[in-house]
Amino acid sequence: MNSAGDPRIAIVGAGLGGLTCARVLQQHGRSVTVFEREASADARPQGGTLDMHADTGQAALRSAGLLDRFHALARPEGDEWRVLDFANAALLAQQGPSAAGGRPEIDRGQLRGLLLDSITEGTVRWDRAVSGVTPLADGTCRLLFSDGTAEDFDLVVGADGAWSRVRPALSHAAPGYTGVTFVETGFDRCDTRHPDLARLVGNGSMLAKGVGRSLVAQRNSNGHIRAYIALRAPEDWHVAAGIDLGDQRAVRTHLLRMFDGWDESLRYILRNSDNGFINRSLFVLPAPHTWEHVPGVTLLGDAAHLMPPVGLGANLAMLDGSDLAHTLVTESSVGEAVRAYESIMLPRSIEAATGSAQGLDHLVPATAS
Fold first, then answer.
1. DSSP structure string for 86-112
2. Numbered residues of the known binding site
3. For the chain, what are the domain ranges?
4. What confidence score (pLDDT) does residue 4 get?
5. Which tens digit of pLDDT belongs to each residue from 291-310?
6. 38 pLDDT above the threshold of 70
7. Among 122, 178, 208, 250, which residue has the fewest nearby CB atoms (within 10 Å)?
8. What does the alpha-carbon distance between residue 319 and residue 314 come to, in Å, rounded to a whole number?
9. Which residues are annotated as a binding site for FAD?
10. 119-150: per-residue pLDDT in tens?
11. Given the DSSP bridges, would you call strands 33-35 and 9-12 parallel, antiparallel or unpaired?
12. Do residues 78 and 219 lie in contact, with contact meaning Cβ atoms separated by under 8 Å?
């Protein structure tokens, strides 16, 4: 306990789930420290756009007292999907945003910035890489840092993503390759520089899919479109193809060959992107992923239930963070709080993992439908 008698709480990872947890704890007057291996908030780009679901991400933002600020930044028109025929780009289906704006979009970086601005200055200790944790006999947990130092806490929360350094204290599970890789690229100032693509994508997201490969493009803020070339392929597909991922021209040429026969308006994504190609192999944790309760440590978000990126991960991470914070301020002990949280989070994550796997199969079909 700290000098005020509150439990000493450490959150490893300044992502959306960890920051939501910190925000809700501070709302209730609890102290918390967030450790982040990155050197600063802007050390790297934070990724694409996210749709915030009413019963998960938005519920967490409401709990954190940030829903109004979220809506001021969000793009309700972004909750639109267009499905196109890969052979001729004909519109096969279109789903517009609901009248109530049920899943407004927001750039991940904007959402993280909103959360960072909402917590007390100094809460996040940047450039503090964690190497592991050691649960102690008295029910506390020792946090081990890469520089050789250590600190003890009443609770360590692993919010440190797919390759969590906290997870091994609870589980031997490791992420496995899904068989699907996303190759990411992007377009800047689309409405003026790429108007035909902007019309093709519309206000939200566009999907065209064939057997074993798909193209997804999503509107981000400031006229940016982020695109993903989705492939069912071995993780080392580029090695088998004799391609150096650093050779952008070779990657572009190979991808164009892979999408031979697709409509040229869709191949434009491969041929004319402003940004380079980034290879992102998709990994997931086994489902179900559960563990026996260990005093002094727990997980949230991708550290607990890494799933395919089909719209659930960020929402669940934030709801995890909110739920954990609430149990910590309402239960009589840290141990009871963590047990209560895990009894909610683990069953929820099992159901979501099943749905996400099905979503990935829909996004990148393995066989013709």
1. TTT--EEEEEPPPTT--S-EEEHHHHH
2. 44, 51, 108, 302
3. 9-76+100-174+285-363, 177-283
4. 57
5. 999 999 999 999 999 999 98
6. yes
7. 122
8. 9
9. 51, 108, 302
10. 999 999 999 999 999 999 999 999 999 999 99
11. parallel
12. yes
Spatial CB neighbours of 171, under 8 Å, sequence gap ≥ 6: 289, 291
Sign of the alpha-carbon dihedral angle for 354, 219, 365, 257? negative
Question: What pLDDT is stored for residue 176 in this prediction?
Answer: 97
**Which single residue is written with the structure tokens 């809700």?**
24
Provide the pLDDT for residue 100.
59
Number of Cβ atoms within 10 Å of the Cβ of 281: 18
Q: Which fold has domain 177-283?
A: D-Amino Acid Oxidase; Chain A, domain 2 (3.30.9)
Q: Mark the binding-site residues for NADPH, compressed into ranges.
A: 44
DSSP H helices, the chain, are 16-27, 57-63, 67-73, 108-118, 190-193, 195-201, 237-240, 248-258, 264-271, 302-305, 313-330, 334-363
Q: Which two tokens stand for residue 251?
A: 């990657």
Q: Write the CB contacts of 129 (distance below 8 Å, at least 6 apart in sequence).
A: 37, 145, 146, 147
- Both tokens of residue 239? 């090695």
Round to whole Å and give the CA distance between 129 and 122. 16
Residue the block writes with tokens 């080392």: 236
Angle, vertex CA 268, rays to CA 266 and CA 270, nearest 5 = 95
| The pair of three-digit structure tokens given for residue 50, joined into one six-digit string | 């996210």
